[in-house]
Amino acid sequence: MISFIRFADSLSAWFGKSFAWLILLMSIGTGYEVFVRYVLNSPTAWALDVSFIMYGTLFMMGGAYTLSRGGHVRGDFLYRLLQPKTQGKIDIVLYIVFFFPGVLALILSGWKYAARSWQYGEVSVNSPAGVPIYQFKAVIVAAGILLFIQGIAQVCRCIIAIRDNYWLEADEDVFETEDLLIQKANMAEKDHIT
């Protein structure tokens, strides 16, 4: 079970970090558009579509990574006070009742949606450039599959929490600046005391 959790976490991390580079491409594309629009007075017809496509792809492909790191929004003002065993029981029910049906609907609907789009070579209707978008519809299915795999890993985490009363955390690879500052302050305080 632990090896599957590590596999799913690694898979989600690889895709999440790979697609995170779209932020750089979006920034370059937006910078280019601003330059040609306001300096050269020659706006592009494709910039808005491409930024929408990249942002949507980034958002979708980062979902499993965010799930693996516990980064999705939770209403846990009472939940956090519970023992891991109880949290695991609640989570496993919620995954089975809400998460998996929703992700399966995403995969199946996304498959139909992408297949239709590929059939007629869909292009964007938002601009006169007619940017092809059919290939990006497949992202819906890929994101759903990644979420499904990560969801199974999260259920495995729930089983471990129910059995052993502790949460198996994902390997930390990204830290909030505030957390790093708190760690640094705590270490400085310990050094000062000793």
UniProtKB/TrEMBL annotation:
GO terms for molecular function: transmembrane transporter activity. Pfam families: DctQ. It is found in: Cell inner membrane. The chain crosses the membrane at residues 21-40, 52-71, 92-114, 134-153. Keywords: Cell inner membrane, Cell membrane, Membrane, Transmembrane, Transmembrane helix, Transport. GO terms for cellular component: plasma membrane. It is a multi-pass membrane protein. Its main location: membrane. InterPro entries: DctQ (IPR055348), TRAP_DctQ (IPR007387). Residues 26-158 form the Tripartite ATP-independent periplasmic transporters DctQ component domain. Belongs to the TRAP transporter small permease family. The complex comprises the extracytoplasmic solute receptor protein and the two transmembrane proteins. Part of the tripartite ATP-independent periplasmic (TRAP) transport system. This is TRAP transporter small permease protein. The lineage of its organism: Bacteria, Pseudomonadati, Pseudomonadota, Alphaproteobacteria, Rhodobacterales.
